[in-house]
Specification:
Layout (H helix, E strand, L loop, with lengths): L5 E3 L3 H4 L10 E5 L4 E3 L5 E3 L3 E4 L6 E3 L4 E3 L2 E3 L1 H22 L3 H21 L1 H8 L7 H10 L5 H5 L2 E6 L9 E2 L4 E3 L24 E7 L2 E6 L1 H5 L33 H13 L4 E4 L19 H4 L13 E4 L5 E4 L55 H16 L7 H7 L2 H14 L6 H4 L8 E7 L2 H8 L3 H4 L1 E5 L22 H20 L2 E4 L7 H17 L8 H15 L4 H11 L5 H17 L23 E2 L2 H11 L2 E4 L2 H13 L9 H9 L2 E4 L2 H9 L6 H18 L3 H25 L3 E9 L8 H9 L12 E6 L3
Parallel strand pairs: 17-18, 17-21, 18-19, 21-24
Antiparallel strand pairs: 1-6, 2-5, 2-14, 3-4, 7-8, 9-13, 10-14, 11-12, 12-13, 15-16, 17-20, 22-23, 23-24
Length: about 800
């Protein structure tokens, strides 16, 4: 079988829909014709206008071809696009017609076809290539297949209108990027429209224009913009999440408008302006729609605005009852829960002083927080921020458990009930609805120093090195210790079955309360697991982790600290055994003890559990039909999620886990073989001098107040920014020497002050990983694209491992 290497990125059958009656050729225009150098040294511009058959145009050699050594493969052209085009042709035909039953049958196929058409063009593939540090042709084809259908949910929830040019003397044109996205606030010269970028479809005023044939054009408009054309155009639409389940009416297509000639020309202007290089039409005179039209880019929006009668059938609340009795609820934006009004706030910068509290809820002043940042790099101002929600949770826990009544920790442990556990987890769930757009609340890559901690989320582990590392690496992002009950089966849920969580609740609560002063001061940013709000992200993360673990042997011996803590948790569980059970066990394990000796041992065990701050002191938690107790230990976030959050926030990664460090080192060498290390002298200086990590919050704040550690965060920021540019700019020895000199001086001054402050600390040695090109995994970059992240790094420039030093 012959190999197909000439790839039509606009299908031939689709182009034929724009032919004039009786003609088998289209008029084409090359907007940037090639220059040809002649033998005499002069140049000649290639032809810019010509006529040709659809088979000869919108085609590029080896656009989809993959290569495996000498083997050339065209399966993407034949199998993937062959199948998509086979389904797409009848779908386009169905929506040109007015057969509602055909719309229902081809509804999903239509949006799948349009989605892949947006991606399969040279412009679409260049956009995709730009989302990754580097992709081979084979990798590009794999990533293209992996993210198809990304736009379908947003499009299907939009106001869907099909306009007609049947009564117009001018018909619709097509371009080499037929799926056109228009936003009146982003003209072609705007930064967000610089090739190969298009306005994201998730922005409220972004409209998708796709000609179905010469006489019909599909226009997709976000509901909020259709209802209120004055809504902020560059703000994301409500609940702009991809890859989720949504119910919509498949018969809701407005077909009210018959466009006149000038309106068709204006739509053609938009299509032409967003083309890469080629456009085509049934007649040559239609290829210059801008002639005679002096409307500005923003004024063109009028022709795309759906009429008010078109909004009938869109929006509103939906209730669907299934045969098993379940009722599905969905609002106008696809959310399955009622909007949490108490989490919203007015986003305004009017009359906001520089010294006033910043609108993002960080607790810092506006001057030192969001004011220096462009709006696109600011966390949301219209919702309660991460810090604000954590403080609300702290206050709620105080009320639920009576922490503000002066009771000590032993009394609190004695008084915890199932209702307390249920109420706290219910409060946490209400503060973090499952439709939360966590990327809108997280800090962006704004050049400020921060680090993602990945390691054991255990109260005894987190205080050893993690919290103290905030003095060295800037704001420390730690995953929240509370579980999100929405993603747990009812029989294991802390809301439905709180009695299973007494042991775990004490540990979680202790860790949360320990971190409170650092959350308030801004040293720690305690975030929920992003996968809790995105089922697709959660599934992908689980699949990736399972695939990675199958190829990587995990050694228990590599994590002695974790094993030690797990053994301690096991002993705490044993201390919860009722007295009669303890006596029976002691008789079996220590037959030499008499009755008095056994009673003394039981009293000792019960005294020991009172002294252990993480042990439950209540009787009756085990046995008597209550079942057992869950003892959860999490090393979080996992490797992929640590990269995901670090790239989304512009952070480095910090770990005290040997296993996680091994994963980081393997990832650093995976892309293109073993990579050279940037700033090697800095890495050597970092590892050469042991440093102390304050392991009590009060001591950490005391040391921070001395100012001796203030130079570390700017140093790490400068090292981070240097590494970001290193691969393209090359090494600068003087800059690297300067970083190492600053580190040496900081080490001397800070460690002297740490010892002088006489606060508890753990000694450790910091190892740095600074690969040229960063730490990166294509699957993580893909997940960021799928999550509609628009401002993230392509890789993580640096990571750190804190190695304990035995004193």
């Amino acid at each position: 079988m012959s190999i197909t290497r000439d790839n039509h990125y606009v299908p031939i059958w689709y182009q034929r829909g724009f032919l004039e009656s009786g003609s088998n050729q289209l008029a084409y225009r090359d907007l940037t014709p090639e220059e040809h150098r002649l033998p005499d040294g002069s140049t000649r511009i290639g032809r810019s206008r010509f006529k040709s058959s659809p088979k000869q145009c919108f085609v590029q050699t080896d656009l989809y071809t993959t290569f495996f050594g000498p083997v050339v493969n065209d399966e993407i052209e034949r199998r993937l696009f062959g199948a998509i085009d086979t389904d797409g042709a009848p779908a386009i035909k169905a929506f040109i017609s007015e057969d509602v039953s055909a719309w229902h049958h081809h509804f999903q196929t239509l949006f799948r076809f349009i989605d892949i058409q947006k991606l399969r063009t040279p412009k679409g593939l260049d956009w995709l290539r730009g989302r990754y540090p580097k992709l081979s042709q084979n990798e590009l084809m794999m990533e293209m297949q992996s993210i198809q259908t990304m736009h379908c949910t947003i499009w299907s929830e939009s106001v869907r209108e099909i306009v007609s040019a049947a009564a117009s003397d001018v018909k619709f044109i097509i371009s080499d990027h037929p799926v056109t996205v228009y936003n009146y606030a982003m003209p072609p010269e705007a930064e967000g429209c610089r090739y190969p970028l298009d306005p994201p479809i998730t922005l409220k005023a972004s409209q998708t224009v796709y000609p179905l044939d010469r006489d019909h054009c599909l226009i997709l408009t976000n509901l909020e913009y259709a209802q209120d054309p004055e809504t902020p155009p560059l703000v994301k639409r409500t609940f702009s999440r991809n890859f989720r389940t949504s119910m919509v009416r498949t018969d809701a297509f407005c077909r009210l408008r018959q466009l006149h000639t000038d309106e068709v020309r204006q739509i053609n202007r938009i299509i032409k302006a967003r083309a890469r290089r080629f456009i085509a039409a049934g007649r040559e005179e239609w290829l210059d729609p801008e002639i005679g039209d002096d409307a500005s880019w923003s004024e063109l929006r009028g022709v795309l605005q759906p009429p008010k009668p078109a909004l009938f059938g869109f929006g509103g609340e939906l209730f669907a009852r299934f045969e098993d009795g379940r009722v599905h609820y969905q609002d106008s934006f696809g959310r399955t829960e009622k909007s949490a009004e108490f989490l919203k706030k007015k986003a305004t910068q009017k009359n906001l002083s520089r010294a006033g509290a910043c609108g993002c809820g960080s607790g810092m002043s506006y001057e030192s927080c969001c004011r220096p940042l462009p709006p696109k790099l600011r966390p949301s101002w219209s919702e309660r921020g991460i810090r604000e929600r954590n403080l609300m949770l702290y206050r709620g826990i105080e009320t639920i458990l009576g922490l503000d009544q002066g009771r000590d920790w032993l009394e609190i442990r004695r008084s915890i009930t199932d209702e307390h556990i249920r109420d706290v987890h219910s409060l946490y769930r209400s503060l973090w609805p499952i439709e939360t757009d966590i990327l809108q609340l997280l800090p962006k890559p704004d050049g400020r120093p921060r680090a993602v901690y990945t390691g054991l989320l255990h109260p005894m582990a987190i205080t050893e090195f993690a919290i103290g590392s905030s003095l060295y690496f800037g704001e420390l992002i730690i995953e929240h210790p509370f579980l999100h009950a929405a993603n747990i089966q009812p029989d294991m849920s802390p809301i439905e079955n709180p009695h299973l969580y007494h042991h775990d609740f004490i540990k979680t609560l202790y860790m949360f309360l320990t971190l409170r002063p650092l959350v308030e001061s801004g040293h720690v940013n305690l975030i929920p697991d992003p996968a809790a709000f995105d089922l697709h992200l959660n599934e992908q993360m689980f699949h990736m982790a399972r695939k990675r673990s199958a190829m990587m042997k995990v050694s228990v011996d590599a994590e002695p600290r974790m094993m030690r803590l797990l053994e301690q948790d096991m002993r705490r569980s044993l201390m919860s055994i009722p007295p009669e059970g303890l006596r029976a066990q002691l008789r079996r394990s220590s037959p030499e003890l008499d009755s008095e000796g056994i009673e003394e041992a039981v009293r000792g065990i019960r005294r020991q559990r009172e002294l252990d701050p993480l042990a439950s002191v209540q009787d009756g938690l085990l046995g008597s039909g209550r079942g057992g107790q869950l003892s959860l230990s999490r090393m979080a976030p996992n490797f992929e999620m640590a990269l995901y959050v670090a790239q989304a926030t512009g952070a480095s990664i910090v770990t005290d886990s040997p296993h996680r460090w091994r994963e980081m080192r393997l990832a650093a060498g995976r892309q293109g073989g073993r990579r050279s290390m940037g700033i090697p002298a800095f890495a050597e200086a970092l590892a050469a001098s042991p440093v102390g990590f304050a392991n009590e919050t009060k001591g950490l704040l005391t040391v921070a107040a001395t100012g001796a550690f203030e130079g570390y965060a700017p140093l790490m920021r400068d090292a981070f920014n240097y590494l970001v540019k290193l691969e393209h700019r090359g090494a600068k020895p003087n800059r690297e020497a300067g970083l190492s000199a600053r580190l040496a001086k900081l080490h001397r001054d800070s460690q002297r002050q740490l010892k002088k402050a006489a606060v508890p600390f753990s000694p450790g040695r910091v190892h740095g990983l600074f690969p040229v090109g960063g730490i990166q995994d294509n699957t993580v970059n893909r997940l960021l694209i799928m999550s509609s992240s628009e401002h993230h790094l392509h890789n993580v420039p640096m990571a750190f491992f804190i190695e304990p030093i035995t004193r």
